[in-house]
Every structure is written in structure tokens, then in C-alpha cells.
Amino acid sequence: MINKKITGVIFDLDGVICHTDKYHYKAWKELADEIGVYFDEEINNRLRGVSRMESLEIVLERSEKIYSQKEKLALAERKNERYKLFLREMSPADLSDEVRVTLDELRSRGFKLTIGSSSKNAGFILGQIGLGDYFDAVSDGNNITNSKPHPEVFIKAADFAGLNPAECIVVEDAEAGLIAAKAAGMTAVAIGWAYDSEYADVSIKSFGELNLLC
Span 7-35, mean pLDDT? Predict the structure, then answer.
């Protein structure tokens, strides 16, 4: 249990509430193949928790061509359009029973629940999995200018929900997100890929363990 007052829980979306990794990978892989750049799952893992344009820069590290900013924006948009097509395959079946039950339990105990995601597709994804109007606030890539590890997305999530940052925990599966949470003055809870991160205040092996922390 966390030894301080907690009034709000801020969740990253991809890899925490639901899993869209395979769709991101397919979209980046198709783009990389089209422009003749090597891309694999190891490189894809470096894209966790960072913005679309920062992800593109990582993808282009192996490119022999130097792209202009205009060309980069076009490439990023091409990837995103393909990604959104893949996201249409998502449904409420992509929300696990464990996540749904845990969210409902936290809400019943009076916690405010928000999303803090760098994704500009957060609203669409939430709608696809049946959580379109579920959260008290959503802060995402559409309302921030700085991506994780900058704390802006989490600070705004707390502000939108009327929460004190010091009374929030952030649940993240990416190290960049954990760094952002701590920079925002929040408690950083690691899950999934970030479980062993040195930046975590607490690590959990399953989503349901959140009920034991708060």
C-alpha cells in the first residue's frame, strides 16, 4: 500500500488499459519497408511512450536518405492513417475483465480516474474498447506540446480532473512515462515492460494489484 493520501489514478493507455503494440508495429513496419529502412521488434520497443514524430526519428536512424521536415510530417501521417485502419479491428473484447473490474472497483471507492497518453488517437481507442465516456478526464497528444518524459501530459490530466498532483499515482509501462510521473510530483507505478525500471516507486505484476496499493 502507498503510504500517502491518493485521490486520483492516471493511466497511460497503450500497454496499460489496452494493448495496441501489434498495430503500431504493423504500421511502422509497413512504412519502413516502403522507404527501404530496416525495422524490427527490438527497434519498435524503443518507441514505447514517445511521440509519433520522435518515434519516426528513431525509425529513420538507419535511413540513408535525409528527409525534410515536410517529408517527415508526411511519413508520420502515412503511418498514422495505416495505424488508424488497424485500430478499427479493436472492440470491447480488447478490454480485459481484470482491467474493467479493477477500474470499477477504484471508481466505487471514490478515486478519480484519468488518462495521460501521448497518443493522438486516445479518444478513438477508448471508444473502440467501450470506454469512450468512462474517465473523469483525458489528456493526450492533442492537448500537449511536450511528450513524455516531460510531465505536461500528467500535469494536465490532474488539472482537468481537479486533482492535486501530489495525491496522484501514474500507472505506466514505459520508462519515459515513469520519469514524467516523477517530474510531475506523482507516484510512479510500473507495470509490464517497465516493471524493473529504476524510476518506479512501486512495481506491479498485474493490473488488479492496483486495488491493493490505493
Answer: 95
Which of 12, 21, 140, 173 is catalytic? The answer is: 12
The H or E element spanning position 171 is strand 168-172
Q: Which residues contact 84 (CB under 8 A, 6 or more apart)?
A: 121, 124
> What pLDDT, on the 0 to 100 scale, is given for residue 147?
87
pLDDT score of 95 more than 90: yes
DSSP labels for 65-102?
SPPPHHHHHHHHHHHHHHHHHHHTT--GGGS-HHHHHH
Active site residue 140: no
Determine if the pTM surpasses 0.90: no
Question: Tens digit of pLDDT for each residue in 61-80?
Answer: 999 999 999 999 999 999 99
* Nearest Cα residue to 140 out of 150, 131, 130, 152: 152
Q: Is the pLDDT of residue 50 over 90?
A: no
Catalytic-residue membership of 196:
no
